[in-house]
Amino acid sequence: MKNSDIALSVSGLEVVLEGAQVLRNVTFKVPAGKTIGLAGHNGAGKTTTLRALMGVAQSRGEILLDGESIERLATAERARRGIGYAPEDRRLITALNVVENLRLPAEIRALSATEIERRLAAVRELLPELKALERRPAGLLSGGQQKMAALGRALMVGDRLLLLDEPFQGLAPVLARRYAEALHALRLQRPELAILITESNPALLAPLAAQVYTIERGEIVSPAQM
Ligand SMILES: Nc1ncnc2c1ncn2[C@@H]1O[C@H](COP(=O)(O)OP(=O)(O)OP(=O)(O)O)[C@@H](O)[C@H]1O
Ligand SMILES: [Mg+2]
Predict the structure, then answer these.
(1) Residue 51 in contact with ligand 1 by CB distance below 6 A
(2) DSSP code at position 90
(3) Whose CA is nearest to atom 1 of ligand 1?
(4) Above pLDDT 90, what percent of the chain?
(5) Which domains does the chain have, with CATH numbers?
(6) Closest ligand 1 atom, CA of 49?
(7) Residues 6 or more apart from 226 whose CB is under 8 A from it?
Protein backbone atom coordinates (compact mmCIF):
# COMPACT_ATOMS: atom_id res chain seq x y z
CA MET A 1 0.00 0.00 0.00
CA LYS A 2 1.32 3.45 -0.92
CA ASN A 3 1.89 5.90 1.90
CA SER A 4 -0.58 8.31 0.29
CA ASP A 5 -3.30 5.71 0.87
CA ILE A 6 -2.86 6.04 4.63
CA ALA A 7 -5.09 8.76 6.06
CA LEU A 8 -4.00 8.37 9.68
CA SER A 9 -0.76 6.88 10.92
CA VAL A 10 -0.19 6.72 14.67
CA SER A 11 3.07 5.49 16.11
CA GLY A 12 4.39 5.22 19.61
CA LEU A 13 1.51 7.18 21.11
CA GLU A 14 1.96 7.62 24.87
CA VAL A 15 -0.40 9.35 27.31
CA VAL A 16 0.23 9.91 31.01
CA LEU A 17 -2.74 11.12 33.09
CA GLU A 18 -2.21 12.15 36.68
CA GLY A 19 1.00 10.18 36.89
CA ALA A 20 -0.48 6.98 35.42
CA GLN A 21 0.60 5.75 31.99
CA VAL A 22 -2.72 5.29 30.20
CA LEU A 23 -1.41 4.67 26.66
CA ARG A 24 1.82 2.86 25.84
CA ASN A 25 3.36 2.70 22.37
CA VAL A 26 -0.03 2.74 20.62
CA THR A 27 0.66 2.19 16.92
CA PHE A 28 -1.86 1.69 14.12
CA LYS A 29 -2.95 2.95 10.72
CA VAL A 30 -6.27 3.94 9.20
CA PRO A 31 -6.17 3.75 5.38
CA ALA A 32 -8.14 6.25 3.31
CA GLY A 33 -11.55 4.86 2.41
CA LYS A 34 -11.51 2.24 5.17
CA THR A 35 -13.29 1.76 8.47
CA ILE A 36 -10.99 0.54 11.22
CA GLY A 37 -12.13 -0.65 14.65
CA LEU A 38 -10.49 -0.18 18.03
CA ALA A 39 -11.91 -2.71 20.48
CA GLY A 40 -11.20 -2.95 24.18
CA HIS A 41 -12.79 -3.41 27.59
CA ASN A 42 -13.83 -0.55 29.85
CA GLY A 43 -10.79 1.46 30.87
CA ALA A 44 -8.58 -0.02 28.12
CA GLY A 45 -7.75 3.40 26.65
CA LYS A 46 -10.13 3.81 23.68
CA THR A 47 -11.42 7.26 24.62
CA THR A 48 -7.93 8.41 25.61
CA THR A 49 -6.64 7.36 22.18
CA LEU A 50 -9.28 9.46 20.40
CA ARG A 51 -8.73 12.38 22.77
CA ALA A 52 -5.00 12.26 22.05
CA LEU A 53 -5.70 12.21 18.30
CA MET A 54 -7.86 15.32 18.69
CA GLY A 55 -5.29 17.02 20.94
CA VAL A 56 -7.73 17.10 23.87
CA ALA A 57 -5.39 14.85 25.87
CA GLN A 58 -1.67 15.62 25.85
CA SER A 59 0.39 12.90 24.22
CA ARG A 60 3.83 11.96 22.98
CA GLY A 61 4.50 10.03 19.79
CA GLU A 62 3.76 10.59 16.14
CA ILE A 63 0.37 11.35 14.58
CA LEU A 64 0.37 11.78 10.80
CA LEU A 65 -2.68 12.91 8.84
CA ASP A 66 -2.10 12.29 5.13
CA GLY A 67 1.59 12.07 5.92
CA GLU A 68 1.75 15.40 7.76
CA SER A 69 2.57 15.59 11.40
CA ILE A 70 -0.33 17.03 13.43
CA GLU A 71 0.70 16.15 16.98
CA ARG A 72 1.70 19.71 17.81
CA LEU A 73 -1.46 21.30 16.43
CA ALA A 74 -4.27 22.64 18.62
CA THR A 75 -7.60 20.81 18.60
CA ALA A 76 -9.31 23.44 16.42
CA GLU A 77 -6.55 23.20 13.83
CA ARG A 78 -6.88 19.40 13.73
CA ALA A 79 -10.61 19.86 13.07
CA ARG A 80 -9.73 22.36 10.34
CA ARG A 81 -7.60 19.66 8.68
CA GLY A 82 -10.74 17.54 8.32
CA ILE A 83 -10.97 15.43 11.46
CA GLY A 84 -14.53 15.00 12.76
CA TYR A 85 -14.94 13.72 16.33
CA ALA A 86 -18.08 12.27 17.93
CA PRO A 87 -17.14 11.90 21.62
CA GLU A 88 -18.51 9.12 23.80
CA ASP A 89 -20.48 11.62 25.89
CA ARG A 90 -21.65 13.46 22.73
CA ARG A 91 -20.98 16.95 24.08
CA LEU A 92 -23.84 18.63 22.24
CA ILE A 93 -24.65 22.12 23.43
CA THR A 94 -27.95 21.44 25.14
CA ALA A 95 -29.34 24.98 24.86
CA LEU A 96 -28.78 25.12 21.09
CA ASN A 97 -31.10 23.32 18.75
CA VAL A 98 -29.91 20.42 16.61
CA VAL A 99 -29.20 22.35 13.43
CA GLU A 100 -27.30 25.00 15.42
CA ASN A 101 -25.18 22.22 16.93
CA LEU A 102 -24.54 20.84 13.45
CA ARG A 103 -23.53 24.26 12.09
CA LEU A 104 -21.27 25.24 14.96
CA PRO A 105 -18.02 23.41 14.10
CA ALA A 106 -18.39 24.42 10.46
CA GLU A 107 -18.87 28.06 11.50
CA ILE A 108 -15.81 27.82 13.76
CA ARG A 109 -13.93 26.56 10.71
CA ALA A 110 -15.20 29.70 8.93
CA LEU A 111 -16.70 27.73 6.06
CA SER A 112 -18.88 29.80 3.71
CA ALA A 113 -22.66 29.81 4.14
CA THR A 114 -23.01 27.98 0.82
CA GLU A 115 -20.54 25.31 1.88
CA ILE A 116 -22.30 24.88 5.24
CA GLU A 117 -25.64 24.40 3.43
CA ARG A 118 -24.05 21.90 1.05
CA ARG A 119 -22.69 19.91 4.00
CA LEU A 120 -26.00 20.08 5.87
CA ALA A 121 -27.75 18.66 2.81
CA ALA A 122 -25.28 15.75 2.71
CA VAL A 123 -25.86 15.07 6.43
CA ARG A 124 -29.67 15.18 5.95
CA GLU A 125 -29.33 12.66 3.14
CA LEU A 126 -27.42 10.26 5.41
CA LEU A 127 -29.43 10.88 8.56
CA PRO A 128 -32.98 11.77 7.46
CA GLU A 129 -34.26 11.23 11.01
CA LEU A 130 -32.46 14.41 12.06
CA LYS A 131 -34.68 16.55 9.83
CA ALA A 132 -37.68 16.37 12.14
CA LEU A 133 -35.47 17.18 15.14
CA GLU A 134 -33.54 20.12 13.73
CA ARG A 135 -35.38 22.84 15.66
CA ARG A 136 -35.44 20.92 18.94
CA PRO A 137 -32.96 21.89 21.69
CA ALA A 138 -30.28 19.19 21.80
CA GLY A 139 -30.87 18.78 25.54
CA LEU A 140 -34.37 17.44 24.84
CA LEU A 141 -33.22 14.63 22.55
CA SER A 142 -33.04 11.02 23.71
CA GLY A 143 -29.57 9.52 24.16
CA GLY A 144 -29.87 7.68 20.86
CA GLN A 145 -31.02 10.78 18.99
CA GLN A 146 -28.07 12.64 20.48
CA LYS A 147 -25.72 9.96 19.10
CA MET A 148 -27.18 10.56 15.62
CA ALA A 149 -26.83 14.33 16.04
CA ALA A 150 -23.22 13.91 17.22
CA LEU A 151 -22.49 11.81 14.12
CA GLY A 152 -24.05 14.53 11.94
CA ARG A 153 -21.97 17.20 13.66
CA ALA A 154 -18.75 15.20 13.17
CA LEU A 155 -19.62 14.81 9.48
CA MET A 156 -19.94 18.60 9.06
CA VAL A 157 -16.15 18.99 9.44
CA GLY A 158 -14.78 15.47 9.10
CA ASP A 159 -13.95 15.37 5.41
CA ARG A 160 -10.82 13.31 5.89
CA LEU A 161 -11.14 11.28 9.08
CA LEU A 162 -14.01 10.48 11.41
CA LEU A 163 -13.40 9.43 15.03
CA LEU A 164 -16.46 7.75 16.57
CA ASP A 165 -16.25 6.83 20.24
CA GLU A 166 -18.54 3.88 21.09
CA PRO A 167 -21.39 5.04 18.85
CA PHE A 168 -23.46 1.90 19.53
CA GLN A 169 -23.26 2.03 23.30
CA GLY A 170 -26.70 2.43 24.84
CA LEU A 171 -28.53 2.42 21.49
CA ALA A 172 -31.72 0.39 21.26
CA PRO A 173 -31.39 -2.36 18.60
CA VAL A 174 -33.49 -0.51 16.02
CA LEU A 175 -31.42 2.63 16.39
CA ALA A 176 -28.14 0.66 16.35
CA ARG A 177 -29.23 -0.87 13.03
CA ARG A 178 -30.07 2.57 11.66
CA TYR A 179 -26.69 3.90 12.79
CA ALA A 180 -24.90 1.00 11.05
CA GLU A 181 -26.96 1.62 7.89
CA ALA A 182 -25.98 5.27 7.96
CA LEU A 183 -22.31 4.26 8.18
CA HIS A 184 -22.74 1.99 5.15
CA ALA A 185 -24.41 4.83 3.22
CA LEU A 186 -21.57 7.10 4.29
CA ARG A 187 -19.03 4.72 2.72
CA LEU A 188 -20.84 5.20 -0.60
CA GLN A 189 -21.30 8.97 -0.19
CA ARG A 190 -17.64 9.54 0.77
CA PRO A 191 -15.48 6.73 -0.62
CA GLU A 192 -12.18 8.35 0.49
CA LEU A 193 -13.16 9.04 4.10
CA ALA A 194 -11.22 7.17 6.79
CA ILE A 195 -13.23 6.10 9.85
CA LEU A 196 -12.00 4.95 13.27
CA ILE A 197 -14.69 3.43 15.53
CA THR A 198 -14.18 2.28 19.10
CA GLU A 199 -16.34 -0.35 20.73
CA SER A 200 -16.13 -2.58 23.77
CA ASN A 201 -17.95 -5.41 21.98
CA PRO A 202 -15.78 -6.46 18.99
CA ALA A 203 -18.69 -8.43 17.47
CA LEU A 204 -20.37 -5.10 16.65
CA LEU A 205 -17.29 -3.94 14.74
CA ALA A 206 -16.80 -7.08 12.64
CA PRO A 207 -19.45 -6.28 9.98
CA LEU A 208 -18.27 -2.68 9.65
CA ALA A 209 -14.51 -2.68 9.91
CA ALA A 210 -11.84 -3.79 7.44
CA GLN A 211 -9.58 -4.41 10.42
CA VAL A 212 -10.02 -4.37 14.19
CA TYR A 213 -7.23 -3.50 16.61
CA THR A 214 -7.59 -4.64 20.20
CA ILE A 215 -6.36 -2.45 23.04
CA GLU A 216 -5.76 -3.76 26.56
CA ARG A 217 -4.48 -1.69 29.47
CA GLY A 218 -3.28 1.03 27.10
CA GLU A 219 -1.46 -1.25 24.64
CA ILE A 220 -2.44 -2.65 21.26
CA VAL A 221 -2.35 -6.41 21.76
CA SER A 222 -3.70 -7.53 18.39
CA PRO A 223 -2.76 -7.58 15.65
CA ALA A 224 0.66 -8.29 17.26
CA GLN A 225 3.02 -5.31 17.15
CA MET A 226 6.53 -5.65 15.70
N1 LIG B 1 -8.32 12.36 33.56
C2 LIG B 1 -7.85 11.17 33.94
N3 LIG B 1 -6.98 11.05 34.98
C4 LIG B 1 -6.49 9.85 35.34
N5 LIG B 1 -6.81 8.71 34.74
C6 LIG B 1 -7.65 8.74 33.73
C7 LIG B 1 -8.23 9.98 33.27
N8 LIG B 1 -9.06 9.70 32.23
C9 LIG B 1 -9.00 8.35 32.07
N10 LIG B 1 -8.17 7.78 32.95
C11 LIG B 1 -7.83 6.35 33.06
O12 LIG B 1 -7.29 5.95 31.82
C13 LIG B 1 -7.66 4.62 31.52
C14 LIG B 1 -8.27 4.59 30.13
O15 LIG B 1 -9.50 5.29 30.14
P16 LIG B 1 -10.38 5.47 28.83
O17 LIG B 1 -11.49 6.39 29.19
O18 LIG B 1 -9.49 5.86 27.71
O19 LIG B 1 -10.90 3.99 28.59
P20 LIG B 1 -12.01 3.46 27.56
O21 LIG B 1 -11.37 2.31 26.84
O22 LIG B 1 -12.52 4.56 26.76
O23 LIG B 1 -13.12 2.87 28.54
P24 LIG B 1 -14.74 2.85 28.41
O25 LIG B 1 -15.06 1.62 27.59
O26 LIG B 1 -15.21 2.69 29.82
O27 LIG B 1 -15.18 4.11 27.77
C28 LIG B 1 -8.62 4.20 32.62
O29 LIG B 1 -7.89 3.41 33.53
C30 LIG B 1 -9.06 5.49 33.23
O31 LIG B 1 -9.37 5.32 34.58
MG1 LIG C 1 -14.36 5.37 26.52
Answers:
(1) no
(2) -
(3) 17
(4) 89
(5) 3-222 (3.40.50.300)
(6) 18
(7) none
